[in-house]
Specification:
Layout (H helix, E strand, L loop, with lengths): L2 H4 L2 H63 L6 H19 L5 H22 L5 H66 L9
């Protein structure tokens, strides 16, 4: 370790500590960025997946209520039928406010088209059972998409957590290395200061 004797002790210690602090600062900036990513992922799981899934369940309930009315006596329950349609329209608007993937948007558009044709068929006293089943099918696919997207977000958060742990371990390792280097420098400094001076020669 001859390098410990080549530079003044204070300068060497300062360089080591400055380097370590610089690396830790960069590490902290990276961690902050990943924390923001983590926050965004959690918000997306809640707002775009759990909330969207609750809308799908509400749409399913409204659709099932419409199906029961049509199977019983739709003429006597026309007001209830209209109420369920209005509820579905509002839920559809709420659903569209979530962050939809391309696949999700395609299936939701299909669901809206099916239910629109179904409402026209009811007014014309047509059999709309095929449309009802098709609408339930689209809701099932939409629900599966929520699960798939949520799993992807959970996997992403897992990778961020793993990366954060690696950064924390790196910081600890750097601090240990810095402590060892500073100790070596101080030891070298003490060795030099305590070394016996050669007696001056008299002429």
């Amino acid at each position: 370790m001859k390098w410990t004797y080549a530079i003044p002790a204070k300068l060497k210690a300062s360089l080591v500590l400055t380097g370590v602090i610089g690396i830790i600062l960069v590490n902290n900036l990276t961690e902050r960025s990943q924390t923001r990513e983590l926050k965004t992922a959690f918000e997306s799981i809640y707002e775009d997946r759990l909330i969207a899934e609750s809308y799908i369940l509400q749409l399913s309930d409204e659709l099932r209520s419409i199906q029961h009315i049509l199977e019983s006596n739709p003429d006597k329950n026309e007001n209830q039928l209209n109420s369920h349609w209005q509820n579905m329209e509002q839920i559809n608007l709420n659903y569209l406010e979530t962050q939809l993937t391309t696949e999700e948007k395609a299936h939701f558009d299909a669901f809206e088209k099916i239910t629109w044709n179904m409402s026209l068929g009811i007014k014309e006293r047509k059999n709309v059972n095929p449309q009802i089943e098709a609408a339930f099918g689209e809701l099932k696919i939409l629900s599966q998409i929520q699960v798939k997207e949520a799993e992807a977000l959970v996997s992403k958060t897992g990778r961020i957590f793993s990366s954060d742990a690696a950064h924390a371990q790196l910081e600890i390792a750097l601090l240990i290395i810095a402590a060892l280097v500073v100790q070596a420098i101080l030891f070298a400094s003490k060795t030099l200061s305590s070394a016996p001076k050669a007696p001056s020669q008299l002429n």
